[in-house]
Design goal:
With 229 residues, the protein is mainly alpha-helical. 69% of the residues lie in helices and 5% in strands.
Length: 229
């Protein structure tokens, strides 16, 4: 276990503590009607009585606890030749970063439960863009494994293809995250922000997949597929 795992534990404990505190001490201060779903314009299109809005408070803490357990178990499940040990610290960082994203959404839901008039979708998109930028910043350090990264038949079959694909993916994901965050901060319409988010995710994910196939076939023709990267 690394420092990142212990930080993940703190995030999970904090999520349960925040929800418990709200339910025990602040439930009476909640509005009688709480939004639980928003349309593409960021306007709530489904509201429920506060007694029925329990998912806003309790859906993410158990998910985060499950993900923390998964973080602990996956390295043990990995075959020896696909061990995460060569990038253990980066693996911990990536998994904890996902925990922080869950925690951010959790806090955003609770905040919006108290302030139904406050924008919810724009901060969500902005937070996700920052998450992708931070993820892209370390993607190039991830080594061949079954759990984290761009796992295609061609990256899993070759260290050279894996490393080259992840360097490309790191640049694309970071660029998308930064551009997306700027678009949100600049006040572009919510529909525009949503389009940027969806298009950016598809572009940053699909381009490396295609690249891994093309690179694999090129190296295979050249007979250099198994050379040291």
């Amino acid at each position: 276990m690394t420092r990142w795992f212990y930080l993940g534990v703190l995030v999970v404990v904090a999520a349960f503590a925040v929800s418990g505190y709200v339910y025990v001490y602040k439930f009476g201060e909640l509005p009688e009607k709480i939004p639980v779903h928003w349309n593409i314009h960021g306007v709530p299109d489904r509201v429920v009585d506060k007694q029925d809005a329990w998912m806003n408070f309790w859906i993410f803490p158990p998910v985060m606890a499950w993900f923390l357990l998964l973080t602990l178990v996956l390295p043990w499940l990995s075959p020896k030749s696909f061990s995460i040990e060569p990038f253990r610290d980066t693996y911990g960082y990536v998994m904890t970063l996902v925990q922080f994203l869950f925690g951010y959404i959790h806090v955003l839901l609770i905040w919006n439960s108290f302030h139904p008039e406050a924008p919810a979708i724009r901060p969500l998109i902005g937070g996700m863009c920052i998450f992708f930028a931070l993820m892209g910043n370390v993607l190039g350090r991830v080594r061949r494994n079954f759990w984290v990264g761009i796992r295609t038949p061609w990256t899993l079959a070759s260290d050279k293809v894996w490393n080259a694909t992840h360097r490309l993916g790191a640049w694309l994901l970071t660029a998308f995250g930064v551009v997306g965050a700027i678009v949100v901060i600049a006040g572009v319409s919510l529909i525009g922000c949503t389009i940027v988010l969806i298009a950016g995710i598809f572009f940053a994910m699909l381009v490396p997949v295609g690249y891994s196939l093309v690179l694999y076939k090129r190296l295979e023709r050249q007979g250099t597929l198994n050379d040291s990267p």
